[in-house]
TrEMBL record:
Keyword terms of this UniProt record: Metal-binding, Zinc, Zinc-finger
SMART domains: RING (SM00184)
UniProt domain RING-type: residue ranges: 185-226
Enzymatic reactions: S-ubiquitinyl-[E2 ubiquitin-conjugating enzyme]-L-cysteine + [acceptor protein]-L-lysine = [E2 ubiquitin-conjugating enzyme]-L-cysteine + N(6)-ubiquitinyl-[acceptor protein]-L-lysine
Protein name (record): RING-type E3 ubiquitin transferase
EC number: 2.3.2.27
Superkingdom of origin: Eukaryota
Length: 232
């Protein structure tokens, strides 16, 4: 498909994201990401393809490895290739996030909001249809996981070598230890703490139990690797 793309990243007005509803003791980064395609024959007509938002701790995101995993999880259902994510999206978004974090005007700002707009300029009308068809095909990932597959996830307490006091059951503690190799949840971006309820997807990726259940009620794919849970 012959197409060109452009990326526009802007900082929006601050303020707390509405879904948080309470003060959080961390500096946060909120990202609104959108993908649209237009026809070069008629640029006034835009087709909205994909939108996703995410909020998390700023210090966690500003690490390149964490930024890569977070951005991958945000666009996992979009049809965007991993190569595009790793070579274009991650460097551009991370660079802008670090720059915004360093600005004097943002010192003491608890929430930095970034708007990321990816505009795909397709050369011909039939190619627009092809792109839309591809994106609609990928939207199958938005189907929720089946209730039975969600219920099959085992809840365990996060376990840390330095504190066993909260986990009296050896079997539960050992399972929690096995799941604790990843130190944070890629959905909410928070670190795991002793006593947190966590779970492992069949692919091996670990999340807060409540976070991944909420995710799977919308999309049956793992946020990090596209592993697909069963659907109804």
């Amino acid at each position: 498909m012959a197409s060109r793309y452009s990326i526009k990243i802007t900082q929006e007005d601050g303020g707390f994201p509405e879904h948080l509803g309470a003060n959080i003791p961390h500096s946060l980064l909120h990202i609104d990401l959108g993908i649209r395609c237009i026809s070069s024959l008629n640029p006034d007509i835009a087709f909205e393809i994909f939108n996703r938002s995410g909020t998390g701790r700023r210090d966690v995101f500003l690490s390149e490895e964490n930024a890569r995993n977070i951005i991958r999880s945000m666009v996992v259902d979009s049809g965007v290739t991993r190569e595009f994510v790793d070579t274009v999206l991650v460097p551009d978004i991370l660079s802008h996030a670090r720059y915004a974090d360093s600005l004097h005007v943002n010192l003491g700002c608890q929430v930095i909001k970034l708007r990321v707009e990816i505009l795909v300029d397709v050369s011909f009308d039939d190619e627009i249809s092809e792109l839309v068809d591809e994106m609609l095909t990928s939207s199958v990932n938005f189907k929720p996981a089946s209730k039975s597959s969600i219920e099959s996830l085992k809840r365990v307490k996060y376990w840390d070598d330095e504190d066993e006091s909260r986990l009296p059951l050896k079997k539960r503690r050992k399972l929690g230890k096995d799941l604790s190799s990843r130190k944070g949840c890629a959905v909410c971006l928070d670190e795991f703490f002793n006593g947190d309820e966590i779970t492992s997807m069949p692919c091996g990726h670990v999340y807060h139990y409540g976070c991944i259940v909420e995710w799977l009620e919308t999309s049956h794919t793992c946020p990090l690797c596209r592993y697909q849970m069963s659907i109804d």
